[in-house]
Design goal:
With 351 residues, this protein is α/β, with parallel strands linked by helices. It folds into 2 domains: 20-254, SGNH hydrolase (Rossmann fold, 3-Layer(aba) Sandwich); 265-349, Immunoglobulin-like. The chain has helices at 2-20, 32-35, 39-49, 66-70, 73-81, 100-106, 108-121, 152-169, 177-187, 203-218, 233-246, 251-254, 265-268; strands at 23-29, 53-59, 86-89, 126-130, 173-175, 274-276, 283-287, 297-302, 308-314, 319-322, 329-337, 340-349. The strands form 3 sheets. It has a 5-stranded parallel β-sheet with strand order 2-1-3-4-5, sandwiched between helices. The chain has a 4-stranded antiparallel β-sheet with strand order 9-8-11-12. A 3-stranded antiparallel β-sheet has the order 6-7-10, with no helix packed on it. A hairpin with a 2-residue loop joins strand 11 (329-337) and strand 12 (340-349). The radius of gyration is 22 Å and the shape is globular. The termini are far apart.
Length: 351
Amino acid sequence: MKRHFLWLTLLVAATLLTNAQTTRKVLFIGNSYIYTNDLPNMIKTLALGCGDTLDYSQSTPGGCTFQNHLSNSTTMGYVNAGGWDHVVLQEQSQLPSFPYSQVQSECFPYAAQLCESIREGAPQAGLVFFMTWGRRDGDASNCANYPPLCTYEGMDSLLCARYTEMAEQNHAALSPVGRVWHHLRDEHPEIGLYSSDGSHPSVAGSYAAAVTFYTILFRRSPSCISNDLALDAAVAQSIRETVQQVVYDSLDYWYRFVDTTQGVADMAGGGALRVWPNPAGSYVEVDFGGAAMQEAVELTLYDGLGRAVRRVAVSEVPARIELTGCPAGLYLLRATAGGRAVGSAKVVRGE
């Protein structure tokens, strides 16, 4: 009897474990930032340690742009085959940081074409843009022609803005590897993220990317990861804690463009999310176009790093969000009700 009970207990435990496992079929489209240190296999290894499975393919010729990929038979063969749960898209490392007019003509249209082709073969596939990082010392080869590229900060901020715009235009998620690197550079400068060329990732840099992608693709906390992949244990732990803070704690922020926003009209009887004054001073007022609310709403304010800096539950409008202590800059205000997104608006905090 005891033996039978033990067998039954083990069987139930095994069944629960199996049901808890998640498999993702992912296509990676990009170039050397993906194949350096075999990033997809790193993600797969980390996923296995958490009981998850990554089944992947990749098309990553060195220096390849989105435009190049559209005429690449390997890339388009994978795209046309379909069946993907997610497709990761990474542009050539410098192009998105170039002057805006150049990005508009040489990057954005081809990103859109790729996304359209992917959705034709895999309508349910989640598109994920790989937000890359600024070069360690800026882009020296293009500095003279475009001064914002002369520093890491300038190049990195442009990459962040352009990948965010591509995600918004194409209703895609963001894998904010560049934001994770930015935080690590600030808080853990002892961690060497770059290889000797100051552009490509070191093993630690790829590990930061892998933990970020695991968190985004599986929507799970990196706290389940215990594999350091030959890194110093303290370094690996610092990277995982950073991803927890920057990515997982604000996961819906990085997926904010994916939601089909029905608008607050669906739950309030009409109208749209509206904020004022904007630019704002010490506070911002929010309403839903004057409509009466029919259910409670949570308003969340996110900063430029995707961190939730204010959360307010409201049952009537207009509602006020205090901004005292929030630095000047651009924020995203997001409204959710019953676990679904119901509206969003950009908020500018003035000086």
